[in-house]
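Morning F.,

Quick status update on the modeling queue. The single chain you submitted on Monday has been processed. Sequence for confirmation:
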Amino acid sequence: MTITQLRSLGRALGSARVRAALSLGVVATVGITGTFAHWTDTVTVTGTVFTAGRIDLKVSGNDTITGFTALNLTTMVPGNSIAVVVPVSNTGTAPLKYTVVTTATNPDTKNLAAALVVKVTTDTAAGGTAPAKLTCPGTALAGSSTTLNSALIPTGRLLAAAPGAAASESLCVQVTLPASVTNTNLQGGTTSIGFTFTGTSDLS
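Structure tokens below.
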């Protein structure tokens, strides 16, 4: 091989090496570019607090009432009625709905309870004449029962959370032995009545 041919071969190899190096350089450059870090930013949000609400149903300001004698009438005859107003309130932090169920017992088996008629209104005061002609003068609550041993107020009544004007209301309860009752076997009969008020946070 002549000197001229060797020089041409050298130039050709040199150009190939340069091209190869440049190609590798491009690849390397792309690889390096791919490792650059992106800018990032973080926002932290704190301070969220959840607190469970509380419902607190009270009747006449109490959680339990024993010896409730305001509706007692020991000399009841046909045509007599007795009525009393009781405040119902919610002293909790969440609104509630309440219902009322009555229970009656007839230990003497005369079943005076079945003859009595019940009425419940939102009157703030009873009318009529004590002791045997007291009444709740207003209109009976829609859907309320007129018999004992039943749901006196079956549809929940809303009481807002305290404090607030809507966190309490008055219920007037009237119990009557109608004048139309002629069953003389009821004479001397006795029945005991209980009221169960139940509150719930379910407002549906």
